[in-house]
Fold this protein.
Amino acid sequence: MNIAYAMGQGGAATAEGGGGFLATPLMPIILMLVIMWFLLIRPQQKKQKEHREMVTNLKKGDLIITSGGLYGRVTGLTEATLTVEIADKVRVKVSRAHVAGLAQTTAKPPAAPAPAKEKPEPDKK
């Protein structure tokens, strides 16, 4: 077999195929990165921005929930911490980074069940 003939075959195949930018092996990787940007990274950045704005706009009297699950009312503010009242005369200091969000103020605590009416005992004769 002639080596020049075999090498000529490969050269002609590439010239005919075009081998443009879209046909490169890097295109699927670039496409995956673009999809990951729009599906994962961008929404996460938007959520972080909203959370940062919420934490900076906190004021006294706001009802919050911490990342640990404590509900309370903000009673004091500093640059790095919040003082949160979680019960009457029970206050804790919480880092601003650990505020999960504002608690819903429209939710009412469940009402206590009404006491059951006593049935009169039947007269036994």
Notes: DSSP finds two helices and five strands in the chain. The longest strand covers residues 71-77. The helical segments are 3-17, 26-56.
